[in-house]
């Protein structure tokens, strides 16, 4: 389930980085002190995960 996904996340991120992609990873308990979006230029893909908890 969700634990299996989260425990494999570092490996998935490393695989993506090794392919030459840039990754900005944020967890739900992280706080930005400034708006990061002015640093991004061009088009970007955004992906979200959800454990379906209610």
Automatic annotation (TrEMBL):
Coiled coil, from the record: none
Protein name according to UniProt: Nucleotide-diphospho-sugar transferase domain-containing protein
Matching InterPro entries: Nucl-diP-sugar_transferase, UDP-D-xylose:L-fucose_XylT
Record domain Nucleotide-diphospho-sugar transferase: where: 2-52
Source organism: Nymphaea colorata
Record GO terms (molecular function): UDP-xylosyltransferase activity
Pfam families per UniProt: Nucleotid_trans
PANTHER family to which the protein is assigned, alphabetical: UDP-D-XYLOSE:L-FUCOSE ALPHA-1,3-D-XYLOSYLTRANSFERASE-RELATED
CC per GO annotation: Golgi apparatus
GO biological process: rhamnogalacturonan II biosynthetic process
């Amino acid at each position: 389930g969700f634990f299996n996904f989260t425990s494999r996340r570092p490996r998935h991120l490393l695989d993506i980085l090794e392919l030459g992609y840039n990754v900005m990873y944020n967890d739900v308990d992280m706080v930005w002190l400034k708006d990061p979006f002015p640093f991004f230029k061009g088009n970007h893909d955004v992906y979200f995960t959800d454990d379906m908890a209610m």
